[in-house]
Structure formats: structure tokens, C-alpha cells
Q: What sequence folds into this?
């Protein structure tokens, strides 16, 4: 048993030291992740890397809505599909279009679809919000599956593989 109580200055010093150690660990981990990110285009298969980045962006968008607001949305797949189909359609049918312009057009399409979804579901909460976004996502799914310009159930073919900023 200890006769003297803990000194508050010693406790504060120990806490500060522990925070410095944690900050160094975070800095090292972030540095390694940055190096891996910079090396990825040179050591990974480009198409696989693009898929990783697309699904990572999908996950970040889902986390932003569900993680911070608690709203469970099933509309994200519809936004991803509308942007992807728009980009693919434009790149395969308009030869003068660059990959970057196609991606910007796809992003604009997904944004407009998101705005339409928001106008229809903004006043809902909980399970009702989830069900409205699920219904709208299914509507978009069936639209793309049954459309001629998307290739229907076979999907789109002949989309040229371009370069993104000359890196990928």
C-alpha cells in the first residue's frame, strides 16, 4: 500500500507521454499508407486498382450518410450504377470524349439522381427512409437492366479503356 497519493503533475506527464507515443504510431502508419498509395499504380494491375478505388469511394459515401447521420440508405448502388453507365455509354459512343470528361458526366448524372432521391425521401426517418431508398434503387436497377442502351442483362460491351490523368 502506498502512503502518499499520486502527484497530479506526474499523472499529467504520463498522459502527455502516452499521447506522444500514440501520435508517433499514427504518423508512422499514415506514412506507410501514403507510400503504399503512391506505389500502387506501379505495382498493381490498373483495372484492379480502379475497382478498389471505386468501391472505396462507395464505402466512404455510405459511411458518411450512415455513420454520421444514422440514415440507412440503399440508394448508393443506384448512384454508382447511374454514374458508371453514363460514363460507359458516353465513352463507347462518343469517340472524342476523354475519360476525365466521361467521369465528370457520370458524376453529374449521379448527383442529379441523388438530388431526385433526396427530394423524394428527405422527410422520412428510420425504416421508412431505408424503404424509400430501396424502392428507388430497385427502380433504377430495373431501368438499367431493361434498357437497350445498357445492353440489358448482358451489360455494356466495347467500352474503351482510357487513361486517367496519364497514370492509370
A:
Amino acid at each position: 500500500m502506498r502512503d502518499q497519493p499520486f502527484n497530479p503533475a506526474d499523472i499529467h506527464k504520463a498522459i502527455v507521454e502516452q499521447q506522444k507515443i500514440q501520435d508517433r504510431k499514427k504518423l508512422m502508419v499514415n506514412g506507410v499508407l501514403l507510400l503504399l498509395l503512391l506505389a500502387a499504380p506501379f505495382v498493381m494491375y490498373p483495372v484492379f486498382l480502379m475497382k478498389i478505388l471505386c468501391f472505396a469511394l462507395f464505402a466512404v459515401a455510405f459511411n458518411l450518410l450512415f455513420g454520421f447521420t444514422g440514415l440507412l440508405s440503399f440508394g448508393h448502388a443506384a448512384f454508382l450504377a447511374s454514374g458508371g453507365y453514363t460514363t460507359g455509354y458516353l465513352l463507347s459512343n462518343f469517340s472524342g470524349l476523354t475519360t476525365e470528361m466521361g467521369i465528370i458526366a457520370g458524376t453529374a448524372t449521379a448527383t442529379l439522381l441523388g438530388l431526385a432521391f433526396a427530394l423524394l425521401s428527405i422527410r422520412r426517418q428510420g425504416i421508412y427512409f431505408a424503404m424509400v431508398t430501396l424502392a428507388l434503387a430497385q427502380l433504377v436497377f430495373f431501368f438499367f437492366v431493361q434498357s437497350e442502351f445498357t445492353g440489358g442483362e448482358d451489360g455494356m460491351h466495347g467500352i474503351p479503356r482510357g487513361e486517367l490523368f496519364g497514370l492509370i
Observations:
- The chain has a mean pLDDT of 88.
